[in-house]
Amino acid sequence: MKFETPIRLVLLHVLQATLLALLLSNWWVHRNNHLFSNSNWIVGKDQGKFVFYTYEWMFRPINNGIIDLGQDQGFQELLFYQPENDQTQLTSLECRAAMSDGTYLWFQFQKKDLALLGIRMSRTTRYPSGFFEFDPHGNLISHTPFPSNPVTESSEWFNVRIEREDDTYRLYINEQLRGSHIYRGAGGHFGFRGSGRARSPVLIRDVDMTFMNPSQPTRTWKISEDFKPDLANRRVLSAAVAMAVLYSLLRLLRTAALTSLLPKEKRRAFIHCDGLGFAILLAGNLAFFNTSSGLHIPLTVLTGELLGLIVLARLQNRDHTPTFSKPVLIGLAVGLAGLSGYAGLKQGELLGRATRIVWNRMQNVDPNAMVLIPGDKPSTSYALDSSRELIPGDPLFVPDRAYQEQEIFVEFTPRGEVTLDLIYQQQGFYTRGDVGGEELALQRRLLRLSTVPNTPGGLSLGVHKQPAPFVHVEGDLHPNQLNTVRLRATGKGVEIELNGTTSFLPGIELLGYGETGLMAYEPSVTVSRFEVSPLQSHSGITLSLKGPSLPVLAVTFLILLLFLRVTTTYTGLNRVGFALLALYPLSLYFTGAVLLNPLSWGFLGTVRFVWLDIGLLTASLALLFPLAGFRKQLKSPPLYFNIVFLLVLVASLLLTWDLLPAQNPLKYKFAKSTAVAPGEIISDNQIGSGPWYSNNRAIGASTYVWRQRFGPKKISLEKDPGIVRVFTIGGSQAWGSGAADSFSTYDALLEKRLQNKGYPVDIYNAGVNGAGISRAEIYFDQILLQFNPDIVIADIGLNDSAGLIQLRNSESQKKHRELLFNSLRAILETCERNNIQFILCLEAMSHEAPLRADKELYDGYIEIANEFGVPVIDSRQIINQVEATSMVWWDTAHYAPYGHHLLADILDPALTKAVDHVVSEMLHASE
Description:
With 927 residues, this protein is α+β, with helices and mostly antiparallel strands. Helices cover 38% and strands 23% of the residues.
């Protein structure tokens, strides 16, 4: 038939395309308008060792051009990307600022290492205002107070201008001179840093900077920053327009086709109701929801389809029988097929549902913020040159290669009770400020083979830091005999052959490219053969069609064709065309896949899956359009109901599935074949009899478990003669969050100091994020003792205090304190038996933190330490005194680089004394 396209129809779709383009661009630009994407600025904390709160702050969309330096545990730092040098000198810095009561704001100039000039404006007497000079280690050189408090009591916005002339800095508040200072630096970055009580707002906006070339003083230039999105620069508007135009063209064809189901006198009513209704929905979203998560966009399309269906059903003339022209049907088929195929080829597995990174807290962090490990490494075959003894702390990984689909063959001899992990597709990352430092684990696949009693083993279903539950693998392990294992990992599943017995586990998804290796937890395992070969990888459209999306599309398409064949006299081409037309809402998703960067879709995290699911639900609803046209020809009303119910149910279940957490038991139960046995996980009452690595809670945050390295340093089981081996244990402060890098944590600084004094000492960082004394006890007993430590420094208190706050009942708190005291006693008793020197360091906390040290807990730790005669270093008094005038804290819970220098100063005398004692004993023993 001939399509009728009145001018009203065209104008309505132009209006819809315009509104949709604005909606898409506004939402995407808002979401992408964060500090990481702003090339003018550097997030100071991004230059140091990993801290969660840094990345949460970096990737939070900026609203109204306002930067809050007090967000996410405070002390946020923002530096201009270009440092001052011989060719560029800052002459003026101006901004608008607002500060809550109890907060303060730093302006930093000529920051090089930790040396800088700081100008602090404070609204609290504890932290004085003025000019501050710091040396390269962060120590305070001088403090010059302002003649009067420069900040008013009001929290309203005020103007700040800092002028520099030669070496003189002048501070103006609302155009009034508040103070001046002479500072002769050596160039460096400039910017802002702020904090306050319990993350109170410290706001800046509208930054204006004036520069000059020192060799050409007349050459000046100005840079302004309003922190607002710029559509033209982000290349989003063009992509949004293309998506909206393509979608609107398909909707235009759909509207023209649907009007053919109506008599002429009702077509105009349908066009007006359907088109204007959808335009109103778009306009409403643009006015009220353009900065939300983005799910309002496909939901608007879904609502528009529902509106169109209602209008069509009310205007339907059941006696009208439409036909369709072949060119239009062929064009629709070719267009949708081509677009879908190209989207798949470009995006790869991003259109499927294969797991890439399972760390839920990081799903909204742009992958470019991390240095992923392994990077782009060739996947060629590998074979072990000669036999190798695997011992704890000395794993065997394939060097400089990464594999996804692969075949692994291992011949090994377990001598006695041992556990061997075959790890593959292991991925981790460095933070950009810690390149070459400590690798943090993300995910992996592993096969655990063990002869140790009460050790669950098999193929791990958990890909996060906690490996259990395990799927049972057929075959027996033979102690003190040669064993063979062959593992094939493909997109179809995992095939494992253990000593001639084969198991096939379908439904085990592939992760990304990763490392492959072996590690042992008890000595010793002799590996005589270890071979890894890459298999044919999925690519292009094949990879993109993984997951439930393709089956849902295929099933709905075939059901529709079958229905049209049973209920109509259409030709085959007409039926195919109508079915393709019904699936058109997915074009929005496919177009986005073509036009947007793959990492951008990945940055959406779970949202991108829900986008697709809502698109499928919309497509299912659109299938009701042809059903509405042929209700009279249906042979059975129940058939009509069941088709509708099936289509909507499948799409709804898929949406629910994607909204479930990654570790939900339902996903374990239904994602695998029924042939896979339930996972084995050690129970709480077995933990005492099982090895430490069988306790998921014990290994959850330990970097050693997956890298078998302490911090960035490799370690051997046996230490060299004459070397004093020191371990630091504790939580994230001990691990070093906030240090300049993994080689600048307080333990690393202590090692350099003692080695410079001539002491033969090696210090290893065994801190674990989130650990308290109970978890430290497990690590100490099960891991550290294997490495024969001479001295242990325990930096504890913060996480244990935080745990006690969660217990509201005083009796429960008392019982929990006793458990913590028992853990400390157990460590000290073990140290006493093994002649290990122990130093207890009680963790300090920022005065601005909402958390406070539990007094009864700290007093109890001190009392127990005195019972055993071990030194106690209470750093709180010194830290809390120095933090008033120095940049001690990275956030309210972790030390900044200067804080690590300061803690090294505090611990140095006690550690030197302990090392002297150990060295004396070594000399006495050698005599």
